[in-house]
Amino acid sequence: MAAAPQFIPYDHWKPDEPPLNAAQRFQQCVSKRRTVRHFSNRPVPKELIESIIAAAGSAPSGANKQPWRFVAIDDPEVKREIRDGAEAEEQLFYDQRAPERWLGDLHQLGTDAHKPHLEDAPWLIAVFKLMQDEYDNNLSGGVYYVNESVGIACGLLLAAAQHAGLATLTHTPSPMQFLCQILQRPAYERPFLLIPVGWPADDCMVPDITRKPLDEIMAHNRSGGSST
User: Fold this and answer.
1) Is-above-0.85 flag for pTM?
2) 195 with 169: CB under 8 angstroms?
3) Where are the domains of the chain?
4) Domain 43-197 is of which CATH architecture?
5) From the CB of residue 23, how many other CB atoms can be counted at a distance below 10 Å?
6) Which helix (DSSP H) or strand (DSSP E) does residue 128 occupy?
7) Which tens digit of pLDDT belongs to each residue from 111-124?
């Protein structure tokens, strides 16, 4: 019989200001987050990268299996190999794989197959999802809601980076198997996301786009909005 679960008192975080003020300040911080493709060569301390990854690792996960691995890369040679692999896949995407509508939607962002930011950013964080419980060598699988869990962790990582003043980009070259080969990851780790991280360049420009307002992304109770 399995041992009875153990519980400890909840260490409730309490902001040092009224909750609404704290929520609004956080919203103001993350609302300025943008996908950045122009990075400064100013160094980012490893301790700062470790801190934002630790924040990501606090995310909830299915059955607390924490099915994620964050590989932090600052070696110029490894970054160059990753750029080469990503650009090869991206060239195929733009030339052959992407339908016209997708390419049209990307046009406003000014993207193409060239990814110099993969070398310019002082750090790359390659996020992998774990497809088995790494602490049980005899178990195949044993992880649950993997995409949801890793997605939430990535969201926390982006928010933590933004809170620290760092700039990020979410990059998903498809397929991403080249990351497993370059970074020598085990077979049960699957690439999920590639995130360049650094300080934005002084002359950094971003596309002139807007986000949906609150009344378009939030509904209250039933579809009619009635609270009765």
Assistant:
1) yes
2) yes
3) 43-197
4) 3-Layer(aba) Sandwich (3.40)
5) 12
6) strand 123-130
7) 888 999 999 999 99
